Amino acid sequence: MNCSSPGSSAAGWRLGVALLGWALLVAGPVDGQVPPPAPGDTAARPAVDTNDVTGMLLRAEEDTRARVPSAPRVGTANLLPAGSRIILTRDSIEFMNAETIGDVISEVPGVFLWRGGWLGRPELPNYLGRGATSVEWLIDGVPFTQLGFDSLTVDPSLLPIGWVDRIEIEQLPGLLRVHLMFREQEVLAPWTRLSVARGTYEQARYEGILQKRVVGGFGYTVGVSYDISNGFNNDVGDFQAAHAWLEASYLPSARFGARLRYRLSTPDRDPSLAEGTPPRDTLARPLRRDRGDLEARVFFAQRNDGLGRQIDFLVTRSSWSYDTLRIPYLEPDFSQDLIRAGVVMTHRWAQRSVGGQLFYGSKWTRVDARANAGWALTERLTAALEWAYQVHQDSRASYWGMARAGLALPLGGGLSAAWRVGQVVAMPSVPGDQAQSISDGELTASLEQARMGARVSYTRTAAFSPVSYYQFAQVDTIGRQGPTEWVTGHLRLAPRQWLVFQGWYSTALGTQPEGTPPDHSIITGAIRSKFLRTFPSGIFDLKLELAAENWGDGVLGRDRQGTPVLIQGATFLRGLIQIKLGSFTLYYDRYNLANTRLTYHPGLRQPAQAYTFGIRWSFLN
Length: 621
Prior knowledge:
This protein has helices spanning 8-27, 53-65, 90-95, 101-105, and strands at residues 85-89, 111-115, 123-127, 135-139, 142-143, 164-172, 175-182, 191-199, 204-213, 218-229, 239-253, 256-269, 272-273, 282-284, 287-288, 290-301, 308-321, 335-348, 352-361, 365-376, 381-392, 396-408, 413-424, 436-448, 452-461, 484-496, 499-509, 519-529, 540-551, 554-558, 564-567, 570-581, 584-590, 599-601, 604-605, 611-620. By secondary structure, the protein is mainly beta. The chain has a 22-stranded antiparallel β-barrel. The longest helix has 20 residues, at 8-27. The radius of gyration is 25 Å and the shape is globular.
């Protein structure tokens, strides 16, 4: 299927249609609205107003409390030892004021985010030195695969963070598994979310979502998002991206439902060039594409409380094309299609779980089969097993097994261990890339109390050849790393209820691997007050935060001549002021407070004293 668009006008046209449809739906009459005033000539009308405004308001209030069934999540019912995954709800995401999903991932100890400059540039995570394929992405249970000229690395900065209602991050030895879950409407009253942000270098973001459900089970979602930012200092080009989310659902009960969803993404990112006089080297490659994802889901659940059996049938079709008018030197009419169909089954009891999934893909990874089981063996001891087998094109295969166990200790203490062994093909879309053996293990000790929390992990990863990042043109390869030992730690201190310090630290012992600094840390201090004496209802919330990110000298990789590409040690400061009144949030976020000219990637500077400010507001119509 060829989904090429005729240019930026096509992306704008699609966005305009989506915005118009969303605006019409928001502007349409709903139960909670007061009727418009009568026309000037009312002589022929009855003298008594027959509109029962009070009744309408009462019905609208009832709709805000009337619960409707919502679809259960896909693939997250497996029982895991405590501390195996990080769960972030919508409130948590907004409280940390993550501008992008990359900001969220960077909070995981051991993640170094390759940032390409200001907002809108690439943000690519590297977890424990495993490179471009160190993170596995799923959207509502469906594996999310990058398409296009770079079919290896998902850029989380291109995923609209305002649509995500919940993020679950599983920390496997040498791998992160990120579940992105979109919002589900749970009451009859229409729900709307608006977000507007502005910043330096013409940065702007506009987001809107409308969700509506009716008693019979039918519902719909309309969402739009538009991001834009301009270059600075003539070394970074412009960026704009339009996104649309259209969904129709039928959920008569929590035991059965169906959903049809379409997502459109049209990013347009200019290349980043080195400073100096032309001709200048390309530091980050351009990105121009149209991507559409059509997803269908039908589920059956035995119970409506999360226990019992659940089976999900999923079919997706993802299409990608570039604009030949804007990239004339590439072959014309280049496009990609990926069809994926599968079934996910789980059975959850109070103290154990079993599950499995089987996906068929039309290219690259033809078969993806997985199984898992978990047991709460005692009140304090939990164990989990996982197995995966994948068949790739050109008769290649990946297979691995993992065992995890966790022990809860008195006074909030805990011990856990994980071991993953097998073979993985890092680049299924690249012919000739062969499987690499892995044997990765991790030991973790933790302590969680009201005023303090601590977590220390020791991880040993096997020898591995990491995959480099296509977007960054100067780093052609990342050198093979031998067996590597990692130590990561997280500490939280709350000396007062309104004062919290927290941060994490990661370091590699022995030989330093390429692709990530040898030591890396992020530390934040936050003051939070609800001014309960003035606002006893708790509706007011003030947050002041200062964050510092620091790392040492290292090697990112090697250029085409094999010369090491060095990264200098740096410190970046970031400040936040955030005020929340109920569901209305106002924030001011300032970057690079120390005005450093150092970079996450050589040549791609972070603007000094750059800022964003904006509002977020969600409400029931």
